[in-house]
Amino acid sequence: MKITTGEKIVYSILLLSLIMVNPPILNYVNNYAVDNPIMFNRPTMYLWLQLWYFIAIIAFLIGAVTIKRWKKDY
């Protein structure tokens, strides 16, 4: 089957959020967090991780609702 544009967007957002919470990127964020440990009255690293987990969850839910291949009747 051919992958639709919506599927490509959902898959790319999920892949991007997976990359953004792994060590190569976290090293750069950690360097920023050392200089600025608190942002918006929360730890900087905590905000970074929660932001990307939230984006992944929203992308997954949008994909679950809109992508027809993910819908199965049992």
Keywords:
mainly alpha, two-stranded antiparallel ribbon, 3 helices
Describe it for me?
A two-stranded antiparallel sheet has the order 1-2. Helix content is 70%, strand content 5%. The longest helix is centred in the last third of the chain and has 23 residues, at 44-66. By secondary structure, it is mostly helical. Helix 1 (5-20) runs antiparallel to helix 3 (44-66). The model has no long low-confidence stretch (mean pLDDT 89). The chain is built from three helices and two strands; from the N terminus they run ααββα. It is elongated, with a radius of gyration of 16 Å.
What does the secondary structure layout of this molecule look like, with pairings?
Elements: H1 5-20, H2 23-35, E1 38-39, E2 42-43, H3 44-66
Antiparallel strand pairs: 1-2
Helix pairs in contact: 1-3
